[in-house]
């Protein structure tokens, strides 16, 4: 099942899957699903996605 694209990140192909208190940010390719980030839902999603994995 594919979830809708993450608003504001369509150009990157990001999708969001909520799971309990977490958000799984992922992309869907032809051969694989790639998990980009797993974040607690209370975190600042926009800041973390724009600044990369070091935050």
Describe this structure in words.
Strand 2 (22-28) and strand 3 form a beta hairpin. The protein has one helix at residues 45-51; strands spanning 15-19, 22-28, 33-40. The chain has one domain (10-51). It is globular, with a radius of gyration of 11 Å. It has 1 helix and 3 strands. It has a 3-stranded antiparallel beta sheet with strand order 1-2-3, with no helix packed on it. Helices cover 13% and strands 36% of the residues. It is mainly beta and 55 residues long.
Indicate the topology:
Elements: E1 15-19, E2 22-28, E3 33-40, H1 45-51
Query: How would you sum up the global shape?
Result: globular
How many helical elements? 1
- Largest sheet strand order: 1-2-3
Q: Helix-strand pattern, N to C?
A: EEEH
Question: What structural class results from the helix and strand content?
Answer: mainly beta
């Amino acid at each position: 099942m594919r979830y809708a694209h993450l608003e504001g990140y369509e150009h990157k192909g990001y999708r969001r899957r909520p799971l309990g208190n977490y958000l799984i940010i992922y992309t869907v390719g032809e051969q694989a699903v790639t998990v980009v980030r797993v974040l607690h839902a209370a975190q600042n999603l926009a800041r973390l996605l724009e600044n990369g994995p070091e935050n």
